[in-house]
Amino acid sequence: MPTPIVDLRSDTVTRPSPAMRRAMHDAEVGDDVYREDPTVNRLQERAAEVFGREAGLYVVSGTMGNQTAIKVLTRHGQEVICEERCHIYNFEMAMMTAFSGVLPRTIRAEDGILTWDLIAPHLRTRNDHRARTGLVEVENTSNLAGGSVYPLEISNDIVDRAHAAGLPVHLDGARIFNASVALGRSVVDLTKKFDSVMFCLSKGLGAPVGSMLVGSKEFIEEARIIRKMLGGGMRQAGVLAAAGLMALEEGPKSLPIDHANAKFLAQGLTEIPGIKIDPSKVVSNILFFDVSGTGLASYEISKRLAAQGVLANGTNPQTLRMVTHLDVDRAGCERALQVLRQVVGAPS
Ligand SMILES: *Cc1c(COP(=O)(O)O)cnc(C)c1O
Fold first, then answer.
1. Which of 141, 113, 138, 268 is closest to 204 using CA atoms?
2. How many helices (H) and strands (E) would you count in the chain?
3. What is the structure's pLDDT at 315?
């Protein structure tokens, strides 16, 4: 049997389990644009319940969820305050500008963790010269900052003070269940103050497709209209929502293993000459590490790893990223370390 691929490019690569495929096969369906798909309805109710909210909405992708929320919560010509490395700014195809007509006002924060002190100088209220701030956005965990997690006091403080300033706050919680595991707090504790929350079913939770928005009834009713504008009104989507339901119920249980594997990788990486990583910064399932000391560009390392069945992408010439997830076990992590050692010419 050929050695299986160890795919550490992202937690989006997870495939539906046999049980998940059976649930998809057996799903009861209806036309969800008519709100008649019982499985989609169940997923939306269950997501709302898990997050302690009035309502939920199933969306095609995290991008659709984030951009829908931005559209609902802002007006054309406003600014959105967000961290410089955030997903809505870097990986959503300039959609906040193209669709909502808003300008991102980015702030660099250590480890991707904004604080109110960093945000406050960038707020623009009614002013004859400057665009007004319309929204603050927080990403937890922060993907490009290495899966870092907001301390609860800091995210609560941001939302409280933004609200005091009359501003809504959207949470890009693509990996909020990873944050929940890292902090040992419920997703309700982590998210209850935010005006809207997006989270992904399709990453570490293991569904093949889909994300959720949760919030007030009023917010979700507006979001439903925007989703339709974006072409996200799906019909017998219950076949997908069935996988989403299983991801929501079962997925969070395996995240502690992913985090332990990420720590294991981080520790192993410190022992490879030419590689730099601070393992104390690896608190969820994402690792970035500096490979410049190896004398090889990250892309070259990536190519050589792939030739031996280990997949990890370079994010710039000096940096490689690895993401742990339910389709990579400890043995896979061990193999990734061993192949990497060999690729960079370290003695094994
Ligand atoms: C993956 C991700 C999203 C959504 O991505 P899609 O590919 O559109 O589902 C949003 N925010 C963050 C932080 C992500 O990592």
1. 141
2. 13, 12
3. 95
pTM: 0.97
Range of 237's domain? Answer: 18-250
Residue 333, domain CATH: 3.90.1150.10
11 ligand 1 Cβ < 6 A: no
Instruction: Give the integer Cα–Cα distance in Å for 238 and 326.
Output: 23
Does residue 165 sit in the same domain as residue 261?
no
- Write down the residue that tokens 């939770």 correspond to: 205
Among 250, 278, 294, identify where a domain stops.
Answer: 250
Return phi, psi of residue 39, to 5°: -75, -40
Ligand 1 within 6 A of CB of 143: yes
How many domains in the chain?
Answer: 2
Q: Considering 250, 271, 287, which residue would you say is the last residue of a domain?
A: 250
Tens digits of residue pLDDT in 95-145: 999 999 999 999 999 999 999 999 999 999 888 899 999 999 999 999 999
Q: Strands, DSSP E only, in the chain?
A: 6-7, 55-59, 79-83, 103-107, 133-139, 169-172, 196-200, 211-215, 286-290, 310-311, 313-316, 319-323
Q: Separation of 162 CA from ligand 1 center, angstroms? A: 24
Residue type (1 letter), 40 = V
Asked if the model's pLDDT at residue 3 lies above 90, the reply is: no
Cβ atoms of 100 and 67 closer than 8 Å: yes
Same domain, 289 and 305: yes
Question: What CA–CA distance (Å, rounded) separates 209 from 20?
Answer: 12
Could you read off the pLDDT of 200-248 as tens digits, one per residue?
999 999 999 999 999 999 999 999 999 999 999 999 999 999 999 999 9
Nearest ligand 1 atom to alpha carbon 142: 13
